[in-house]
Amino acid sequence: MKKICSIILVLTMVLGILTACGQDDSKKTNDGTKDQGTASNNDANANKKTAEKEREKLIISLDKMPEDVKLARAIEEVQEMEKYSHVDFEIHGKEADFLTTMPITVAGGEQRDLVAVAQPILQQQWADAGTIQPLTKMIESLGLDFEKEFGPYAANAMNNGEYYTIPHNITKWALYYNKKIFDEAGIPYPDPKVPMTWDDYRALAKQLTSGEGAEKKYGALYLTWPMFWYGEAIMTLGGGQHFYNEEGLSNIEDPAFAHALQKTFDMMHVDKSIPTHADVVISKTKPTAFMNGQYGMAVQGGWILSWAADKENYPRDFEIGIAPMPVDEGTTPKTWGIVNGFAIAQTSANPELALEVGMDLSRLSAQYAMAAPEANQTVEQNLLYTGMGDKLGAEGMTTEVLLDIFANPETAFLTEKVTGANAPTYEKVINEEVEKFLVEEQDLDTTINNIKARGDKKILD
Amino acid sequence: MRTRRKKHIKQNIVGYTFILPSLIGFILFMAYPLFHSLFLSLMNWNMFKGLEGSTFIGFDNYKAVFENEYFRAGIMNNIKFVIMAVPLLLIVSMLLATLLNRNIWGRGALRTMYFMPYVATITAAAVVFSALFHPEFGPINSFLRAIGVADPPSWTASVKWALPTVALFWIWKNLGYCVVIFLAGLQGIPKSYYEAASIDGASKFSQFMHITLPLVSPTTFFLAVTTVIASFQVFAEVNVMTEGGPGTATVTLVYHIYETAFKRYQMGYASAVSWVFFALVVVVTAIQWMGQKKWVKYV
């Protein structure tokens, strides 16, 4: 009896393990849905599977990009296109900790075709690591001409002499202001055509600051993004590439950086016209904080227009105005920004198809652009800013004003990120040292010297 | 003889079959990753290209570990963290457990309250803790200002205070667990010892020092070993509260491993750090193990 019991138990155990291991595969069909499991359906399922083998699956990971209205519309249209009727699209929107999980997914061998690359430092890092594929050969074999297609922005798609992304959107920054705070302070609104200087901006922020504690109204919003302190320096010097000197080493010794850093520090700790770095870090202040009405001004990208138009999610009792970005000197408009792109992951099942779809998404989203000027040069931008102009015109942000701010051909466009050798590590060093200065734990000279010493070491690594 | 041997083998097969699920789990999720990481630590491993895109570099990763400034910062921060957090955690939890072991009013509710942070999600707990220690608006600094401290610390935003603040958070989070373990230890001490001591005229303090402390020492030793290991492994608290900053003030070894492996994709180097870290924990635990003979009393 004992023997029989043991045999039964052992068999049950082994069967249990085998069943558990095999269960998922047997119950899932190719499209990931669960099979009903009736024997009579087996033949039909087999035929269906054969038919599905001829179909293609394209997995697109876009993180937060589908929140972009024009891209969402482009995605819908691409899925309706006849030439992609054989393609099953799987669109992944906002994913938790996308920047970490996406590369791990790719490293794990899971299929990903098109992936969003939202900033150049990440693009360099992913290109170096092999997360994303070089596209130059594919571009040539498909007869595409990126320079003709994307104009000067094609250069932003390149890393290590190869194309790695399909440019699809450019963020450009502007100065937004809270009209209510200006009215309460009795200060005239900024000129919508002529930019103020950074010195004017800082003086204005000081004038707009009022109140204490929870009632405090800051003259301007500060975020931990590093361009909030180095913005003036890169405007003076001509872009993120000037973080490097002629020898390719750290250029942090240029007085423009120390000047910009000291001025930001003064706004925090002397004028108290922006929240301190410590406050922003601990409060985890988000870019949307401008919509809460506690800040007189905010420099940010065109995405603020989308929040301004969305009064359901961002209710407010103030009107928003827009002006050109402050400049280092003169009256010529300048702005900074980045070129977003679609890249093709190392684990793409069909890179050529992914490239084709990426090109269509880029072209279509350019066509439907409302909030930001487009990378794509070949597409008629007939809807550019008209949508936002219609929604925000009553507040003074008409289509004409928006075009003047964002699509003025006179405006100098600068890359906002550190762009050069070992940029991700060099930027990390910069951020670590600057943070110690901004929280008053290290003086300016030590900060600059430390960045130079540590930065050079990292660049040479 | 042969029949007995056969029977013995059969019994063994049955036994092994029962442990098979656990064994498979252990091999797949513990043993294999462990030895795979040892292999990775000797490679310049490209996680996106696998073996084809990787090269064997011997002990270069191990050399790089000791030259890396983040590793040095991490190890120093870990040592400081252990020194700050573990003794304080053990002392406070033992005192609390002694208090909660008495027949005081609201004992059940108090035990639950102390245990709550331990079961709360770390992110939620960190948000609450960060709000308490907010340099400008937090109640801690408001209180300090009210009692005349003109310039209270910026806590997690301060290079000097960030690590102690994370340590305080870690202590608060783990206090409930240690209290429960100490309570179990305290309840194992026969009441007759205290009764005899009382008859002999020993004070409460004397009873605590000469009865409670020695007899609860096996529990203290258990907690000392496990909390030292846990404090070396501190990661989530750092990731949620400070992300290693300001500067490198709160970079710990596990945070450094996470950053290099999953943010910088240097899987080989991260594996080497993991093995150095493992060796360090083994040495510390061995020292504790050897030291126990001098102070742990098993009755």
UniProtKB/TrEMBL annotation, chain A:
Record keywords: Signal
InterPro entries per the UniProt record, alphabetical: Bact_solute-bd_prot1, SBP
Residue ranges of coiled coil: none
Signal listed as a keyword: yes
Biased composition (Basic and acidic residues): 25-34
Signal recorded as keyword: yes
Residue span of region Disordered: 25-52
Signal peptide: 1-22
Composition-biased stretches (Polar residues): 35-48
Name of protein: Extracellular solute-binding protein
The species this protein was found in: Vallitalea pronyensis
Lineage, uppermost ranks: Bacteria, Bacillati, Bacillota, Clostridia, Lachnospirales
From TrEMBL, chain B:
Biological process, per Gene Ontology: transmembrane transport
GO cellular component, one term: plasma membrane
Pfam families in UniProt: BPD_transp_1
Similarity section: Belongs to the binding-protein-dependent transport system permease family.
ABC transmembrane type-1 domain segment(s): 75-288
Name by which UniProt lists this protein: Sugar ABC transporter permease
Superkingdom assignment: Bacteria
Organism of derivation: Vallitalea pronyensis
Keyword Secreted attributed: no
SUPFAM superfamilies the record matches: MetI-like
Membrane-related topology note: Multi-pass membrane protein
Protein localization: Cell membrane
Keyword entries, A-Z: Cell membrane, Membrane, Transmembrane, Transmembrane helix, Transport
Stored CDD domains: TM_PBP2
